[in-house]
Write a structure and sequence with these properties.
The structure holds 2 protein chains of 2 kinds.
Chain A: H1 2-35, H2 40-70
Chain B: E1 9-13, E2 16-19, H1 20-41, H2 49-69, H3 73-95, E3 105-109, H4 126-138, H5 140-149, E4 164-168, H6 177-199, H7 201-208, H8 214-255, H9 261-291
Antiparallel strand pairs in B: 1-2, 3-4
Helix pairs in contact in B: 1-3, 2-3, 3-6, 3-9, 6-7, 6-8, 6-9, 8-9
Classes of the chains: A mainly alpha, B mainly alpha.
C-alpha cells in the first residue's frame, strides 16, 4: 500500500513541472507564429524539440515508478 | 497482462545470453545492412530512383548538420555516426510496433528465483528445474501446445507441474535499458574522441582539471559530472519513452482490444521519430558545444 502511494506521489509531483513547461512552450511558440507567420516552420521544429525535452523530465519519473512497480 | 522491465531470455549461444530485444535489434541491423548493399550496388547510377532517393536523404541530413556545426571537417566526421544513430533508433522504434511483437512466443516453466522474498510452498523438483532450459529451446512446439491449456493460469498452478510463463520471441529493442545504455555510451565516447581530435589532448584534459584557480577547479568537476550525466539522460530518455509506449499500448489493448489502440499506434510512431531525432540532434549539439569550447 505504501509502495502504491509512493508511485502515485512520484507521478503526481513529476507531472506538474513538465505540464507547466509544455503549456508555456506551446503558448510562446504559438504567439511567435502569430507575430511572424512566415517563421512557422522553423518555430514548429524547435517547439517540438523543446516539448520532447520537457516531456523527458516526466519520463525520468515514469522510469523510476516503473522500476518501483515491476522490479 | 504481464509487464517485465527486463528483457526476457530466450536462449543461449556459447555462454552469451540471447534476449528477445537482441533478436529484434539484430533484425534491424540486418535490414540496414541489406539497404546499404543495395545502395552500394546502385551507386552513381543516376537513373536509379532508389539511389536518387537515398541521395536526397543524405543531402538533407548533411545540410542540417552543416547548419549546426558549419561546413568543414567536423561535419564530415560526425555525419556518419549521427545519421547511423537516427536510422538505427527510428527503425528499432517502428519495428517494435509491428504485429507479432510481444505476441509470438513460447511457454516456458517459470524460473525458480531465489531472491523472491517469501519461499514458495511448492518446490519445483530438481529434474524439472535442471531440464527446463533444454526443453524450452528444443521443444518449443511441444511446450506451446502444453502451455495453451493453462497459459493464463494464475500464480500457483497445478501441483507437481511447474508454472508456465509466456516468453515473447520479439520485443522492441529500445525498451531494454542495456540497449539504450550501449548507444548512449557510444555517443558520449564519440563526443570525447571528436573533441580530443579537434582541440588536442592537452586542451581536452585542461577543461576538466584546471588548477589555476579554485573556481576553475570546481568548474572542471562540474564538467566531469555533466559528461557522466549525459550518459544517463540519453539512455533514460530513450528507454523511458519507448518502454512507456509499449506499456501504454498493452494497457489500451487490454482495455479495448479492437479500434482503440490505433490512434495510440500513431502517437507511438511519432514518439519514435521524435526520440530518434532528439538523440541524433543532441549528439550533434554536444559535439558542437565541446568542439567550439576552446576556440573562443
Amino acid at each position: 500500500m505504501t509502495k502504491e502511494l509512493a508511485i502515485m506521489g512520484i507521478m503526481v509531483a513529476a507531472a506538474i513541472g513538465p505540464a507547466i513547461a509544455i503549456g508555456w512552450i506551446a503558448s510562446t511558440a504559438l504567439s511567435a507564429i502569430g507575430r511572424n507567420p512566415e517563421a512557422a516552420k522553423n518555430v514548429q521544429g524547435n517547439m517540438i524539440l523543446g516539448l520532447a525535452f520537457a516531456e523527458a523530465i516526466a519520463i525520468y519519473a515514469l522510469v523510476v515508478s516503473f522500476v518501483l512497480k515491476f522490479v | 497482462m504481464e509487464i517485465l522491465l527486463k528483457a526476457e531470455k530466450i536462449g543461449e549461444i556459447g555462454g552469451l545470453t540471447v534476449t528477445n530485444t537482441l533478436v529484434a535489434s539484430t533484425c534491424v541491423m540486418l535490414f540496414l545492412m541489406v539497404i546499404a548493399l543495395f545502395i552500394k550496388k546502385s551507386r552513381y547510377d543516376l537513373k536509379s530512383r532508389f539511389y536518387n532517393f537515398i541521395e536526397m536523404i543524405v543531402d538533407g541530413f548533411m545540410s542540417v548538420i552543416e547548419g549546426v556545426v558549419g561546413r568543414g571537417r567536423v561535419a564530415q566526421q560526425i555525419f556518419s555516426i549521427v545519421v547511423t544513430f537516427f536510422f538505427f533508433i527510428i527503425l528499432n522504434n517502428w519495428f517494435g510496433l509491428f504485429p507479432g511483437f510481444g505476441a509470438i512466443g513460447f511457454y516456458e516453466p517459470k524460473h525458480h528465483t531465489e531472491d523472491s522474498g517469501e519461499t514458495s510452498e511448492h518446490v519445483v523438483s530438481e529434474e524439472a528445474a535442471g531440464a527446463h532450459n533444454e526443453e524450452a529451446i528444443e521443444g518449443e512446439g511441444n511446450k506451446e501446445a502444453e502451455g495453451g491449456e493453462h497459459g493464463e493460469a494464475p500464480e500457483g498452478g497445478h501441483e507437481g507441474e511447474p508454472e508456465m510463463v509466456f516468453v515473447p520471441l520479439l520485443r522492441s529493442a529500445n525498451s531494454d535499458l542495456n540497449m539504450t545504455l550501449a548507444i548512449a555510451l557510444v555517443s558520449v565516447m564519440f563526443i570525447q574522441i571528436i573533441t580530443i581530435r579537434s582541440v588536442g589532448f592537452k586542451n581536452y584534459i585542461g577543461k576538466f582539471f584546471n588548477f589555476s584557480s579554485v573556481i576553475l577547479f570546481f568548474v572542471g568537476l562540474l564538467e566531469i559530472i555533466s559528461e557522466i550525466v549525459k550518459i544517463f539522460s540519453f539512455s533514460f530518455r530513450l528507454f523511458g519513452n519507448i518502454f512507456a509506449g509499449d506499456v501504454l499500448l498493452i494497457v489500451i489493448s487490454s482495455l479495448v482490444p479492437y479500434i482503440a489502440p490505433i490512434p495510440f499506434m500513431g502517437i507511438e510512431m511519432f514518439a519514435g521519430f521524435i526520440q530518434a531525432l532528439i538523440f541524433s540532434m543532441l549528439t550533434l549539439v554536444f559535439v558542437n558545444v565541446s568542439v567550439s569550447h576552446d576556440h573562443s
